[in-house]
Specification:
The structure is a single chain. By secondary structure, the chain is of the alpha+beta class. Helix 9 packs across helix 10. It has ten helices and four strands; from the N terminus they run ααααβαβαβαβααα. The radius of gyration is 32 Å and the shape is elongated. Helix content is 66%, strand content 8%.
Length: 300
C-alpha cells in the first residue's frame, strides 16, 4: 500500500510542470480498494482449486478402496470355491470307498491311503487360504463401513528432500503400503521409506491433530494441503503416542537407491573407465526403454 502512495506523490511532484497534473487521494484509495478485492477473489479462486483438487483426490482414493474391496470379495469367493470343490472330491472318494467290497478295500488300500493323505494336505492348505481370504474380505468390508478407520503413514525421502523432512498422510487402503508406493512414482527421483504406519479408528482426526502439532514445521507455508514437515522422527513418535497410536517405527531410513547413487557418483568421480562404462550402459537402457513406450506415455 505504501508503494502506491509513494508512486502517487512522485507523479504529483513531477506533474507540476504539466499543468499541475495530479493523482487525487480518492483515486488512490479506490485503486487500493480494487486491489484488495482482486486479491481476495484471487485467494478464493486458489482455495476453490485446492478444495476441488482435494475432492478429486478423495474420489480417486475411494475408487481404489472400492477396487480393493471388490478384489477381496472375489478372492474370498475363489478360495471358498476351491475349498468346496476339494471337499466334494474328498467326499466322493470316501463314498466310493464305502461302496467297495472288503476285498476291494484291501486291494486298493495303499492307493486309497495316498489319495486320502493328498486330499487331507490340500484341504488343510485350502482351508487356511480360505480363512485368510475371508479375514481380508471382512477387514475390507469393515473399513468400508467405518469410513474413518485407516492408517496414518510417516514417510521420508532423504534423496529428494534431505534429512528431517517427513510426509504425514493417511490412507484407508487395505494395504496402506500401496499408497506409499504410488507416491514414490515419477514425481520424485527416489522411492519413499516408511518410517511409521499407525492404525487409528478415527484416522482423519488423528491426521489433522498431527498436522496442527507440526504446523510451524510445514515445508510449504503457502498452503495447508502440503503434508511435508520439517521435524524429527522422535518428535513425531512422541506426538503419535500422545494420540494413543501404536506403531512399529524405523528410526534409520533405508534410502537404498539414494545411498547406492552416492556410491556410484563417488566411483564415477574417481574411476574414468567406470564412468564411461556406466554412461554407455545408461544410454543403452534408455534407448531400449524408449522403444517400449508409446508416443506421449509417461512413467508413473
Amino acid at each position: 500500500m505504501r508503494q502506491f502512495w509513494d508512486a502517487a506523490i512522485l507523479v504529483n511532484k513531477n506533474g507540476r510542470p504539466f499543468r499541475d497534473a495530479q493523482i487525487l487521494p480518492a483515486y488512490v484509495e479506490a485503486r487500493l480498494e480494487e486491489l484488495k478485492w482482486a486479491t481476495i477473489v484471487h485467494e478464493l479462486k486458489l482455495q476453490e482449486r485446492e478444495e476441488q483438487r482435494t475432492i478429486r483426490e478423495q474420489i480417486r482414493e475411494e475408487k481404489k478402496v472400492q477396487k480393493e474391496i471388490e478384489k477381496a470379495e472375489k478372492e474370498a469367493a475363489r478360495e471358498q470355491k476351491i475349498r468346496n470343490n476339494l471337499r466334494k472330491e474328498f467326499d466322493a472318494l470316501l463314498e466310493r470307498e464305502r461302496k467297495m467290497s472288503e476285498k476291494e478295500r484291501i486291494f486298493y488300500a495303499q492307493e486309497l491311503a495316498r489319495e486320502k493323505a493328498r486330499f487331507a494336505s490340500e484341504l488343510e492348505d485350502a482351508e487356511e487360504r480360505a480363512r485368510l481370504a475371508e479375514e481380508r474380505n471382512q477387514r475390507a468390508m469393515s473399513m468400508a463401513q467405518q469410513t474413518k478407520r485407516g492408517h496414518v503413514y510417516v514417510i521420508s525421502n532423504i534423496g529428494s528432500f534431505g534429512e528431517d523432512v517427513y510426509k504425514i498422510g493417511m490412507t484407508r487402503r487395505l494395504e496402506p503400503k500401496e499408497r506409499v508406493d504410488e507416491l514414490g512414482g515419477a514425481s520424485v527421483p527416489f522411492p519413499y521409506d516408511v518410517r511409521g504406519m499407525i492404525r487409528f479408528e478415527d484416522c482423519p482426526a488423528a491426521e489433522r491433530k498431527l498436522h496442527r502439532f507440526f504446523v510451524m514445521g510445514q515445508v510449504n507455508k503457502t498452503t495447508f494441503r502440503k503434508e511435508f514437515f520439517r521435524t524429527s522422527l522422535s518428535e513425531i513418535k512422541t506426538a503419535v503416542e500422545q494420540l494413543g497410536g501404536v506403531a512399529h517405527w524405523t528410526m534409520l531410513a533405508d534410502a537404498a537407491q539414494y545411498r547406492e547413487t552416492l556410491r556410484i557418483e563417488e566411483r564415477i568421480q574417481n574411476d574414468e573407465a567406470y564412468r564411461r562404462e556406466w554412461e554407455e550402459r545408461q544410454v543403452r537402457l534408455g534407448e531400449s526403454m524408449a522403444s517400449l513406450w508409446d508416443d506421449g506415455d509417461e512413467e508413473v
